[in-house]
Amino acid sequence: MSRIVHFELPTSNVQVSKKFLEEVFGWKIEKWNGPVEYWTVTTGDPSEPGINGGLGGAANEFHGTVNTLEVPNLDETLARVVAGGGQVVMPKDEIPGVGWLAYIREPGGAVLGVIQNFPERSM
Questions:
Q1: What are the DSSP calls for 84-96, one per residue?
Q2: How is the chain split into domains, by residue range?
Q3: Structure pTM?
Q4: Is the dihedral of CA 72, 93, 64, 32 positive or negative?
Q5: Average per-residue pLDDT in the chain?
Q6: Residue 75, C-beta contacts closer than 8 angstroms, at least 6 positions apart
Q7: For a FRET experiment, which of 26, 52, 80, 102 has its CA 20 to 30 Å from that of 92?
Q8: pLDDT at res. 23
Q9: Could you report the per-residue pLDDT of 12-23, keeping only the tens digit for each?
Q10: Strands, DSSP E only, in 1-123?
């Protein structure tokens, strides 16, 4: 069974969104040290229920929150998505130091991220 392990909020103004989310919800938002502009979002104590996420640029063409599920094998999952009537809308791509990520659209239209973390990064 695959669980949601990450969310991504698109924004057209990272600083405005960051200030709002930190002040209103007490979230901790920090710039990710990776090859693209991205901000990590910590929503609470890791010992409590909940998930963390990210704040991305307006480049998210889906214009809404994307929830990401962790899967044991991304290639097998993508094959099952297509066989089940879904569509791969962003092909498998490496996130350096994290894992392999793709976006899919299920037959009803919802977009989901699917990630196979590198073994040392399993969530």
A1: TT-EEEEEEEEET
A2: 4-121
A3: 0.81
A4: positive
A5: 90
A6: 92
A7: 52
A8: 94
A9: 888 999 999 999
A10: 4-10, 28-31, 39-42, 53-56, 66-70, 87-95, 99-105, 111-117
Residue pair 56/9 in contact by the 8 Å Cβ criterion: yes
pLDDT tens figures, 92-115: 999 999 999 999 999 988 899 999
**Total count of residues recorded for the chain:** 123
Which residue matches tokens 């879904």?
86
Which amino acid belongs to residue 121? R
- What Rg do the C-alpha atoms of the chain give, in angstroms? 15
CATH node for 4-121: 3.10.180.10
Q: For Cα atoms 12, 31, 74, give the angle at the middle one, nearest 5 degrees.
A: 85
Residue bearing tokens 């791969």: 88
Residues 40, 97 contacting (CB under 8 angstroms): no
- CA-to-CA distance for 53 and 29, rounded, in angstroms? 9
